[in-house]
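B., you asked whether I could sanity-check this one before it goes into the benchmark set. Here's the sequence:
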Amino acid sequence: MKKVKVYGERNSGTHFITRLIQRNFIAETIPGTLADAKQSGYRDTFEKQLESLIQDECKRKLASSIKVDEYFLGNPWKTLGWKHCVPPLDIIESHPENEKILFITLTKNPYAWALSMFRRPYGNFSLQKPDDLSQFLKEPWLTANRDNCPPLLNSPIELWNLKTDGYRQLEKNHTVLRIRYEDVIDNPEKFLSTVSEHLEKKPKKFFILNKSAKEEDVGKKDFNYYHDYYLNQRWREKLSDEHIEIINQYLDPIIVEEAGYTLINTNK
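And here's what the prediction gave me:
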């Protein structure tokens, strides 16, 4: 296959996976963000325009999100949707080259993901960063149009359910590698070997990225840090029984099990 499309919820490792693929394979990565799809500076330009037109910060943030939505709505075949969306099956089915595209979906343990989303709540329309995990987990989440989800969810945890189940639906009729983030961190060479069954490998040995994919973590967290944090479940120390119970309240057990994870029992 000559093209690859990556889907995964925010904070699930999509940037890391995309960089791995680009460094190791000869294939076109279908853009999944505005930065990937547009020339550099495009978003800065319209956000500067919005700043001159709209005084209210909240209104400006919403307008910026709408501008991004408009791009994905107007370029369905070029992008096949935002990389963090529920895969748009109707658009994919209508794409003339859908049989030539390798789809890779990425899922992170829902409890670890909840913590990641709390720390970096990308797409949250709030002007203030959340500072209470319990409140964050129980508070309704407003989605963007590009999420391809209902506009108002009971909790951000429902994003995990919807996206993960969307990958299962995509797998029914297309060539899909459904990947768990933890498995990639555990054995990136195995992941790349699996991908090499579908994409042309570059004539070199596999290149494994060691630096953090997040600019703010470069120099602080490397591959060994993530390997230890996720495979030894260091994140568990940051979740109280109350947090676990709230997360369980919104998780769909069937989707969790089908994705290869297990609900945590607090024994209460």
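One thing to flag: Residues 1 and 199 are 5 Å apart (CA to CA). Otherwise nothing jumped out at me.
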